[in-house]
């Protein structure tokens, strides 16, 4: 993705992923459209998200080592993910990307990748 390596390396590695995920779940934990499908305690959810994004961005394959193949669609089937919730999730991620200070072109590349993933996760109409 970059001249020097991965998005993970280009944005600053795990510390930036950690900052991104922390900011993201602060938004998720307060979003009325998302709180019904997330646990009250987001600690474990955020831990898994850190592992997943690290791997997705080209860093160490910690998610696979910890949880096996991502199978994200299957893992999200128990939750009603509507277009409205997809958009709410992306709104939270957009804000977190801004707050974490990820520069272009990486910010747009990350948001595009996560938009496609969020679209894929939908499993329920509004």
Automatic annotation (TrEMBL):
SUPFAM superfamilies: Globin-like. This is Globin. Belongs to the truncated hemoglobin family. Group II subfamily. PANTHER family: TWO-ON-TWO HEMOGLOBIN-3. Keywords: Heme, Iron, Metal-binding, Transport. InterPro entries: GlbO/GLB3-like, Globin-like_sf, Globin/Proto, Hemoglobin_trunc. Coiled coil: none annotated. The keyword Heme applies. The keyword Metal-binding applies. It holds the Pfam family Bac_globin. It comes from the Bacteria.
